[in-house]
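Now for one protein, fold included:
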Amino acid sequence: MSDSLLSNSSLEIVATKDGSQTVLNKELGSTYHSRHGAFTESQHVFIGKGLRKLVDNGVMKITLLEMGFGTGLNALLTFQAVLGTKVEIDYHGLEVNPLPASLMKNYTLPEDSVMMARQFEAMHSSSWNEATAISDQFMLTKHQVALQHYHPNVNFNLVYYDAFEPETQPELWTIEVFGKLHSWMSQGGILTTYCCKGYVKRNMIAAGFEVEKVPGPPGKREMICATKPL
């Protein structure tokens, strides 16, 4: 297990407008999910515009990269979305600073996901940098490494890009970073993110993605869905 570099004094669990919780990093002044609704944002941006879109295209084996494992909400909702289907998920989450276990003990799951508490605990208690089978159809590997230093040995057909906003982490929204992601993805792969800034879109296009602006979650008029062309 890894010791987090973050302390509880710099972090706070806060409620969001849909009743679900997120974590506020007080040093950065940023939350891990939208204050307009953590659960709603995750379902809309990553499950609805990413996972479901790929499954609707007939993809049953999904190798998924999440930039910013954070609270694990995106991973849990992905697990929940494919439960009872034939979809298989190989989930890779990147996180430089894992949230402290002592903090996450006080994190309450959204009402629609409380039944997944055992799987959520398994995700958080799993060892870093090792593959863990959460179920027969869901493999999780949490990587404690910065994206810039990550060297995957798989190709991804789905990317959840959930880094902190460009104002907080500008180094994660560059042409170079999107070029790396593009090179790691299979043709037809989808990248989805809550962000929709013009220069982010231009950087993605410069890196080789086809980019589409689509309606965003509450609090965001638009968001980006990007595809690696066939």
